[in-house]
Amino acid sequence: QKEVEQNSGPLSVPEGAIASLNCTYSDRGSQSFFWYRQYSGKSPELIMFIYSNGDKEDGRFTAQLNKASQYVSLLIRDSQPSDSATYLCAVNGNGGSQGNLIFGKGTKLSVKP
Amino acid sequence: GAGVSQSPSNKVTEKGKDVELRCDPISGHTALYWYRQSLGQGLEFLIYFQGNSAPDKSGLPSDRFSAERTGGSVSTLTIQRTQQEDSAVYLCASSSRHSLQEAYEQYFGPGTRLTVT
Hints:
The structure holds two protein chains of two kinds. By secondary structure, chain A is mostly beta strands.
């Protein structure tokens, strides 16, 4: 069974700093990678997705994918207190269920003013 | 446009009762997914629909769980003879497309918090 691993945190960064969130996955054949943000008591919100090796930038967010090393990361520049949330990494399923997502347990980020 | 909606937002039920949870996906989205999130746990995949068909039911925890989708739109997740371990937030997501080879963006509803007493 494919596994997606994340450090549970909490990861604490000062306001304005860069937050770096990491995720590793077990299946070298994984193709699709997603980052979701989940505020306490709320449902996950899609932030970014990435399919190709390298970096993908969207505003303050950058997703980085390294398939050879089997990790995907999310960088948040100029972190704000409103970025404080749990960040979930998701990878496509395996076998005949590659259209499904397998989620990590998330990293809790705390941005201190 | 409107996002994914779910009802009820909260449901408290007694052990042994049946419950129905409803999901209304984003208009035009052909794929629909059900997940469960227990306190402090990750999201657990339950089932997905492509149109009205559910090709993969292997994620359903037991035969007390069933789901259906009608008209390629609204889906209902039914839990029969609820147990305390069924207490969780049940999340529904939809996507404009689904492939057997790769995953696409999924958008989540607000969830239904189920408490079994």
